[in-house]
Amino acid sequence: QGQLEESGGGLVQPGGSLKLSCAVSGPTSRIFALAWFRQAPGKEREFVAAINWSGRDTDYADSAKGRFTISRDDAKSTQYLQMNNLKPEDTAVYYCAADRGYFGRGKSGYSYWGQGTRVTVSS
Fold first, then answer.
1. Residue-wise pLDDT tens digits, 12-51
2. How far is it, in rounded angstroms, from Cα 112 to Cα 59?
């Protein structure tokens, strides 16, 4: 079983940066595809970015392209989401997700989820 724990959220001004981390535990952590989703108040959870088990393939939502970078460090069993040029519309709770076989944008495809970390972009 995989367990995920996010960290790194907080309050940042528009145009600022944050780096989210997601610690992945469990004996099979190295073969997980990993992803980030977010959920803003009153909205559905939406896909942000994903990285496959090898790290060679990544995918980004249009809203994240050019501003966010997903990466993973298997030696530390951790994945990251570097977020630059943050906008107020990026305000949401960000969730880490993982799955042994699925790599895609659908939240129903991911078996394991963290509890979320809140990101607030405001001046």
1. 999 999 999 999 987 666 678 999 999 999 999 999 999 9
2. 19
Collapsed DSSP state (helix, strand, coil) of residue 29: helix
**Residues 6, 113 contacting (CB under 8 angstroms):** no
What DSSP character marks residue 91?
-
Angle at 21 between CA 76 and CA 107, to 5 degrees: 110
The pairing of strands 68-73 and 58-60 is unpaired
Please, are residues 22 and 32 in contact by the beta-carbon 8 Å criterion? no
User: 10-12 and 117-121 as β-strands: parallel, antiparallel, unpaired?
Assistant: parallel
Structure tokens at 98: 């993982």
R_g (Cα) of the chain, nearest Å:
13
